[in-house]
């Protein structure tokens, strides 16, 4: 089943944009490879596996790379204000490192066996090494930021970039803390949920866009880019929630049932626990220690009937509109907004 | 049993020094409290518990605080070169945060149930939250370094401090990676071992002393302080290994058998696996998945008879001498070396 709302056909213009994104993604990958390849073999192999560049035996593989959303948004934001994207490749790499550390630790926390259709790091190397490799990536992210100096970024700006990235990391952990706490609760409000994803997901995306605009010398425009990234991050996470329930495994590379079995308080669940006519039954199902495979279709049916999906999709539209408004308000020239607008729309409608 | 080598009686001079260390420790604790108390309650409570300031219910407790070795060495190094210790309290706090993050993650990795005689963070809050709180502490460490700006430290120096701390974090993870790998091996050489502890333990202590001397405007003296800290860190870890086998629980707060049961390749074990006349038997014991409680006395007896303890103690002396030589070589005035010398000696002979 492909999302009910479907995905817009690629226009010729979007094809050009996709080509540009691919170029950015490749540049960030090269930057990451330079950083990662300098690390000792035992850690490097795990990192190269996680990034999808190698299989677990260390042989090169041609797989679908990650989405690189944060780094592409970073570079697009830098360019939108007239900045030099080549100069900020190290900060783009730092953002991807933080994001990937959060994935590796998240997979341990959620007991996820697969990511992008491949065994997760902890499944192959054990939880101890997976914890360690995540910590290592956070150190590499700092090293990446320090590399900005070699590209001529002034010390003051590097320090402010550290400030932006560190605040985002802090919020990410705060959001993750709430996400874990929420698993054991059935009384989460939509407001609680929005606060949680603002920290867990939107903060790092907001740091990506604002740091891009800041390092691109966008001055006061950076705060609009922060708001743009935050709103886009909210839309992105809600879309993720929808895909976690109604997505197709081949596109997302994730087990569809993971979020539900883990009793994650995704937006559709939070909504249905409050609004569904079967909320008592849903509450009972979510009060178990784990939701059994057999109960999943029952949960999905309750969610389907509750209107939770439309509610979530409406919120995505709302955040997406807000993101685009902030982009307009930034005062950046229209033609420089185009690529960011397209990215925002495509993320809000994605099926992957 | 108190360590065979015993501990030197406290001289009057040492009492003065102890008072000074306590003052430094209290100042760093205050700095840490300021940082930690600004975080959201759910994370703050775990941090305050781990630091020993509260019990698990959030009630204040008067417990023995940690040793604060890294931050005290940082402040003493700063002062030794004529620097302002009040100015560098944030970097002292950053060092403690990194160290404590490594303890929290280490306890999950080693499945340790107790630290300082109290349940570990993961035992009380689960592994997911313990992983998360560690990540959070690394973000707080960066925030602490950024606070140096408020104390008038120039941007260039903050960036160099980030460089020193980040390199140490990277090495810490590399060392941790080796430590975990070594658990499954019985062919570790003393050289392998020394390389592992140089990264796992000595790197952060070296960063503590060199960053202290650097921020204290010690200029080229900082590299001698790096060597001093590294050698001291080696001595410190080997002493830790000895206490892990022959220490007393009441002093160390750790289970004595932890290292052995976990098949840790501590120096006495590495030595005995190569030099003991019973090495074949020892190898068999260490080739099991876990060493049973019943086998521990057999292992300890083999270690006792092998001369592993004297060998380790001799290496401590060697590293301690090297540390003091570097301190001499730094050209710091003799009376400014005294406190650091005393700290080095007391760490090498500690029973706690």
Please tag this protein with its features.
homodimer, 352 residues, mainly alpha, Farnesyl Diphosphate Synthase, two-stranded antiparallel sheet, globular, disordered N terminus
Polypeptide structure, described:
Two copies of one chain form a homodimer. Chain A is mainly α. Chain A has helices at residues 12-36, 41-50, 69-80, 89-109, 121-146, 155-183, 190-215, 221-246, 249-252, 258-261, 267-275, 279-286, 296-306, 308-329, 334-348, and strands spanning 114-115, 118-119. Chain A has one domain: Farnesyl Diphosphate Synthase. Chain A is built from 15 helices and two strands. In chain A, strands 1-2 form a two-stranded antiparallel ribbon. The model of chain A is unreliable at 1-11 (pLDDT under 50). At the A-B interface, helix 4, helix 5 and helix 6 of A face helix 4, helix 5 and helix 6 of B.
Q: Supply Rg of chain A.
A: 20 Å
From the 3D structure, determine the CATH topology of chain A: Farnesyl Diphosphate Synthase
- What would you give as the CATH superfamily of chain A? Farnesyl Diphosphate Synthase
Assembly category: homodimer
The largest β sheet of chain A comes out as: 2 strands, antiparallel
Bulk shape of chain A: globular
Counting DSSP E segments of at least 2 residues, the number of strands of chain A comes to 2
CATH top level class name of chain A:
Mainly Alpha
Largest interface pair: A-B, 46 and 46 residues
How much of the sequence lies in strands of chain A comes to under 5%
Name the helix and strand elements of chain A from N-terminus to C-terminus, one letter apiece: HHHHEEHHHHHHHHHHH
What structural class is derived from the secondary structure elements of chain A?
A: mainly alpha
Number of helices of chain A: 15
Provide the spatial order of strands within the biggest beta sheet of chain A: 1-2
Percent in helix of chain A: over 70%
Q: Indicate the mean pLDDT of chain A.
A: 91
Q: Span between N and C termini of chain A?
A: 13 Å
- Under the CATH scheme, the architecture of chain A is Orthogonal Bundle
């Amino acid at each position: 089943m492909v999302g009910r709302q479907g995905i817009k056909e690629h226009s010729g213009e979007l094809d050009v944009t996709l080509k540009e994104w691919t170029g950015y993604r490749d540049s960030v990958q090269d930057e990451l490879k330079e950083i990662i390849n300098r690390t000792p073999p035992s850690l490097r192999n795990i990192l190269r596996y996680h990034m999808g560049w190698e299989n677990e035996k260390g042989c090169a593989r041609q797989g679908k790379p990650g989405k690189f959303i944060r780094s592409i948004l970073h570079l697009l934001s830098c360019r939108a204000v007239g900045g030099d994207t080549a100069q900020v490749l190290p900060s783009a790499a730092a953002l991807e490192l933080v994001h990937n550390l959060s994935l590796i630790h998240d997979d341990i926390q959620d007991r996820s066996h697969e990511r992008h259709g491949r065994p997760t790091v902890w499944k192959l190397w054990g939880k101890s090494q997976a914890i360690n490799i995540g910590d290592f990536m956070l150190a590499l992210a700092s090293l990446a930021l320090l590399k900005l100096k070699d590209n001529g970024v002034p010390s003051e700006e590097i320090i402010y970039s550290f400030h932006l990235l560190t605040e985002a990391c802090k919020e990410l952990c705060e959001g993750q803390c709430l996400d874990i706490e929420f698993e054991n609760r059935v009384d989460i409000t939509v407001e609680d949920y929005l606060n949680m994803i603002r920290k867990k997901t939107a903060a790092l995306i907001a740091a990506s866009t604002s740091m891009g605009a800041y390092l691109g010398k966008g001055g006061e425009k950076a705060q609009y880019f922060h708001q743009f990234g935050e709103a886009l991050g909210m839309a992105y996470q809600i879309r993720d929630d929808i895909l976690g329930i109604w997505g197709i495994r081949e596109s997302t590379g994730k087990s569809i049932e993971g979020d539900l079995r883990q009793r994650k308080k995704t937006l559709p669940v939070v909504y249905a626990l409050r609004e569904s006519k079967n909320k008592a039954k849903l509450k009972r199902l979510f009060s178990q220690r784990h939701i059994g495979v057999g109960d999943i279709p029952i949960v999905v049916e309750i969610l389907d009937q509750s209107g939770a999906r439309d509610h979530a999709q409406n919120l995505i539209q709302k955040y997406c509109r807000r993101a685009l408004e902030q982009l307009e308000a930034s005062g950046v020239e229209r033609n420089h907004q185009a690529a960011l607008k397209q990215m925002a729309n495509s993320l809000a409608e994605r099926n992957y």
